[in-house]
Amino acid sequence: MFRTIHGYEPFPWQAEAAHRLTSGEKFNAVNVPTASGKTSMIDAAVFAAAHGGARRIAFIIDRRVVVDEAYNRAQRIANALSEPALDEFNQRIGPIQVVRLRGGVHGDDDWVLYPERVTVLVSTVDQIGSRLLHRGYGVSTRMAPLHAGFVGNDALYIVDEAHISTPFIQTVQASCRYGANVRMITMTATPTETDVDEIRLSKEDTSHPVLKKRLKSSKKARLLNSSDAEKDFVKIAAAEAQNLVKDSRVIGVVVNRVDSARRIQKALIKQRHRAELLTGRIRPYDRDQLMARLFPEIRAGRNRTDGEPIFIVATQTVEVGADIDFDSLITEAAPLDSLRQRFGRLDRMGEIRTANAVIIYRDPKRDKKGSPVPDPIYGMAIHHTWEWLKQVAQDGVIDFGITELEKIIKKKGQPPPSEPAQAPALLPPHIRLLSQTGPDAPRIDISAWLHGAGNRASDVSIIWRSDLPIEDPSSWNDIVKLQPPLTRESLEIPLYAAQSWLLGLRQQYVTDIEGANYLVSVPRSQLVETLPVLRWRGPDDIALVSPRDIQTGDTLIVPSLFGGCDDYGWNPNSKNPVTDVAEHCRLDRGKYLVIRLVPNLTNWLGSKEKQISEAVTEVIAAETELVPEFGVDKDRVQFAHSTLRSLLAEIKHPFIDAFKGKFEIERYPMGIVLRGRIIDEVNATLHSGARVELQRHLEGVTRKIELIADGHHQLERLKTAAKLHDKGKAEHRFQVMLYGNPIDAAAGPLLAKSGMRKLSEIYAAYAQADIPKGFRHELASLSLSNETDRLVRYLVGSHHGFGRPWFPPCADPDAHGVEVATLGSGWIEAFSALKAELGPWTLAEMELLLRASDARQSIAEQEEFLA
């Protein structure tokens, strides 16, 4: 398999890892140097999954560039399964889905609906850890149990750079003690004491011709001091980088802060050099554009040719796993383990043999006693490392080659290690509280369990939209609903940095280490009122909020005119409008397409832009202008729509091609949208015009769960829940809503899905049916059935994410199912008893299996209609 996919044989240690995973032989750690191919553990895990191993594989690393590269590797594996040489393996393993979890946006999580597939999740600690704890960042409260059930069962966690992820590792271990079914393997390029359960390089590895060249290469680093002043550090770093141009084409400059990187890039550009910026604080869409242009010139294994020198100014994001290869390196001083990772990007393949580097140390501020003040990012570790470097260097130079540095450490020892952060104890009462999800779930700060006590600098996601009028924030909700956000257009920054930026305060340090505790918050006294932002927690939880109300994991949507981002990512000092990339992201993801025809977003129409703009204006006028005694002129509306469709048919562009001629034209506050299918917003009952009878839907969901949960020990109870889950839709008012009027509802068969196509029709039908606020058809399903099995009743009642343990209050006290939600019904006691009996993660997975079957049956019904 490995050779077919990658074109070469695995290293001996890689083959051993695959063998031990497949055979079930115990090991819990991989300890190999950088450039040894640690991301190949993804290959080993996929191979093991085909032979009975865990089918939900998470490769976890707190470096955003590395998340991208590990994702690309996993994607190559998935794509290669179509090769004839892998046909037998493909038949054994089935479809593979590869998911990149680098930042979360509510609703952008279709992958969770495929729990039976082998899945490779490439994730940061925050993303996988928050999901495990039922508090997924970027996951709606109603979807939280599905994600917990997915990542907490039949899972293998491969944790790279494990030495900085101690709190997360402790939390995973505690979760496993209380019911999570997760196996964990830690990886590091920083050697520790030998453990009998770990894989290291063998003699066969060190004598391997490819690895030997990498291990023996020399990397001579000169030590240099700078003052603490930012301008002095930037000047020295830029000057030293330019000094390396003579013998190098790709010069890396790696620093500890995003702002420092931007200043150095600017200084190099001012000297007429080509300088590119690479940080983790960038939208995934922009990163893909940047790396598509840049990566061929800087990747490991490239053909080293003469040409214009290129400076890659970067942050910690390149430290681990990034398949980047510098010819020479300038690096800011950092703890020894971080420096070793950075030098792993220098002459990565061992082709230069002797590469040159400079380590620059900022002289620290000192306290009244003359002692160094802890670094805002690395504490005292950076100072201890610098003193050690000076002691072991010869004539101010130290060799960071893998073999040579090992010799130095063996002879001289290492600098005093930083005290690793510790997670607070995760106890059963915590888990019982965390597993209470849904809109009324308690808000719990989980950052300490992921990054350690005191480390609270977790992220929020920011999305920029050009169709949000600054003068009318009240319209933002309706505007965004028609073009829901996606992860690819979001940029992750620390919570405190987002608050400082929105409030116009002095910008704070931003680094590329998740959870770093260099600043924990903006003082409440500074959180003054300002323009609001739109907080998105899914289509059923959107609100305008003040910066003071932002919380970790929130998705914030702001007008493009706010600035704050450019082609290289986070730039809080930029006042230029930010490019809105929503349509591009939706097209790239293969998601159902929504195209906005509004000012500033129609350049892609080319020569037809003016004509189409006029046609859009006419559609709006036709639908809004009233003719005395007749109201809206329907003939005019029909002609306006026909004209617009004819003009769009002449456009040759991926946006239009993706519709395949099937789209709706709808007004929204800023103009017109073209929509491929209706967004499921109204209690998850109305879809893309596909009218589906209730009995047919129930039978379809039952068949789906037989497929998805094949072999599950509770399959019969899951099937029973599937047969009952939507029975409550038979309620008369609900049928009136689905049909659009009471006459058809009384005469026709019971429906599960509406045949309506426009959101305006759906909302009108909802209003006409007079369904009481808070009515839940899943509770009506329980009221209309005689089922007594506690687990079956729970699965039916919770299949839209409520009832864990709370339901919304219903305005009609006599509605079907209202009695189930009362305090005396026994529902809360049943929820607690099932968690105790099955475990919170097992119960969540059973909910996942039912809800995934329901959703996928609905998708199949939509696809059948659209075919």
**Order of the strands making up the biggest sheet:** 3-4-2-5-6-1-7
Mind telling me the CATH class of the largest domain? Alpha Beta
The count of helical stretches stands at 33
Task: Write the CATH homologous superfamily of the largest domain.
Answer: P-loop containing nucleotide triphosphate hydrolases
| Spatial shape | globular
Q: Uncertain runs with pLDDT below 50, 5 residues or more?
A: 517-528, 679-687
Q: Architecture of the largest domain, according to CATH?
A: 3-Layer(aba) Sandwich
Distance between the termini: 36 Å
User: Which structural class is indicated by helix and strand composition?
Assistant: alpha/beta
Q: What is the residue-mean pLDDT, rounded to a whole number?
A: 89
What Rg do the Cα atoms give?
Answer: 29 Å
User: What is the count of β-strands?
Assistant: 28
- Work out the helicity level: 25-40%
Beta-strand share of residues: 5-15%
Number of domains: 5
Would you mind describing this structure in some detail?
The protein has 33 helices and 28 strands. It has 867 residues and is α/β, with parallel strands linked by helices. It has 5 domains: 2-202, Rossmann fold (3-Layer(aba) Sandwich), CATH 3.40.50; 217-412, Rossmann fold (3-Layer(aba) Sandwich); 456-589, no CATH class; 594-675, no CATH class; 692-866, no CATH class. A 7-stranded parallel sheet has the order 3-4-2-5-6-1-7, sandwiched between helices. A 7-stranded mixed sheet has the order 10-11-9-12-13-8-14, sandwiched between helices. A 5-stranded mixed sheet has the order 16-15-19-17-18. Helix 2 runs parallel beside helix 3.
